[in-house]
Amino acid sequence: MSTETNATRAYQHLRDKLISGAFDPGTRLLYGPIGKEIGVSATPVREAAGQLANEGLVDLVPQLGAIVRRMGRKELIEIYEVRLAIEPYAARLAAARATEKQIACIQAKMERLDELADRQEASETEFAGKRIVTQFNKADYAFHLAVIEATGNQALMRTAGQSHVLTRVFGIRRHRQTAATMKTTCDEHRAILSALMEKNAAAAAKAETYHITRGLQLSLDAIDADEDGEG
């Protein structure tokens, strides 16, 4: 297998883990151990880290290597503003253009979110553990990508996908997940899905706007709580 292919594998592996929340902000990415996870050497992992740095997902620090980025209030708000500019319009387009097959795909993502929220509720623990949070984040991300893909607009998919990667890594994961917060997230996604199924473009855009706005507020509240705790 070529170095280029190995680097691509390493990039996708790291990107997926960042999206799902497997690495907390500030975590150092260890090239050797990460390479062993997917059966490659440290070199392609280092190359993948360079690509992720170009996308703003990690910082390259001398003597340390790649560090998962921390995001401050201003940058977080700016990225959510990008989402608000793009994703409600994407939902509007998806309501008009989505095929039955695409709607079924979005429904499947919704079912996965519900399944994970039910699992957390059944666990009777106050806060969700790392594993279920990781799975929930991946399912959440997959739902939004499926909505964006239903627009059929390739340029929109690239732009919206990139902005959503950043919020998935630095935004919503800032607050701790409980069964209640997971259920609320599911309700918000279900409102988007219902509007898409009804081909109601205005309702789809409104539901998407509400969901993104609430996510921003939760993230900002978590930042404020962290800062108060450090003060």
Low-confidence spans:
none
CATH topology of the largest domain, by name, is Four Helix Bundle (Hemerythrin (Met), subunit A)
Mean pLDDT, nearest integer? 91
Rg measurement, Å: 18 Å
Helical content stands at over 70%
The top-level CATH class of the largest domain is Mainly Alpha
In short:
The protein is mostly helical and 231 residues long. Helix content is 75%, strand content 3%. The protein has helices at residues 3-20, 31-38, 42-54, 73-97, 100-123, 130-149, 154-170, 179-197, 201-230; strands at 58-61, 65-68.
Can you tell me about this structure?
The protein is mainly alpha-helical. The chain folds into 2 domains: 3-68, Arc Repressor Mutant, subunit A (Orthogonal Bundle); 73-230, Up-down Bundle (Four Helix Bundle (Hemerythrin (Met), subunit A)). The protein contains 9 helices and 2 strands, in the order H-H-H-E-E-H-H-H-H-H-H. It has helices spanning 3-20, 31-38, 42-54, 73-97, 100-123, 130-149, 154-170, 179-197, 201-230, and strands at 58-61, 65-68. A two-stranded antiparallel ribbon has the order 1-2.
